[in-house]
From TrEMBL:
PANTHER family: OS08G0374000 PROTEIN-RELATED, PHYTOHORMONE-BINDING PROTEIN. It comes from the Eukaryota. The keyword GTP-binding does not apply. The keyword Iron-sulfur does not apply. This is Bet v I/Major latex protein domain-containing protein. Signal peptide: none annotated. It comes from Eucalyptus globulus. GO terms for biological process: defense response.
């Protein structure tokens, strides 16, 4: 099992960022990163633990058309969510297992630290550098969305 980690600080409060990441990700990502994610929808479950989300990728993701992700970790009290790819996307690129976990920690009332951990299995000896860049773009996109709306 290979692992990659990154951290990003968002200039928004933990509660609003957590809501975006854990409840509204499928509907907000296409708005904030339309070139990466064209659309997303919950296709199984109620959006909670065990739910499956289908993301269709945009023109900036030429090697992948779609990816189904299952929510395999969801802890409201510790602000932790884990998404495992179960079909398409990274699994079509040689990965046999691909999971992304987000851990949110409040720094202050209007600042949140996000720890991102990727766990994966692949034939490659090194993980692609774009792996962690996607999570940073996602968090920064959510941050910009929250700052531009009344959601915070």
């Amino acid at each position: 099992m290979k692992e990659a980690k990154t951290q990003v600080t968002a200039d928004v409060g933990i509660d609003s960022l957590w809501k975006c990441l854990s409840k509204d990700l499928h509907s907000i990502l296409p708005q904030v990163l339309p070139n990466l994610v064209q659309n997303g929808e919950v296709i199984e479950g109620d959006g909670g633990l065990g739910s499956v989300i289908l993301f269709n990728f945009g023109p900036d993701v030429p090697n992948m058309k779609y990816q189904k992700e299952k929510i395999v970790e969801l802890d409201e009290s510790s602000h932790r969510i884990g998404l495992q790819v179960i079909e398409g996307g990274h699994l079509d690129l040689g990965f046999t297992f691909y999971k992304t976990s987000f851990q949110l920690t409040a720094i202050s009332e209007k600042q949140t630290l996000v720890d991102v951990v990727y766990e994966c299995e692949t034939e490659q000896t090194v993980l692609p550098s774009k792996t962690t860049a996607g999570a940073v773009a996602c968090i920064k996109g959510l941050e910009n969305y929250l700052l531009s709306t009344d959601a915070i």
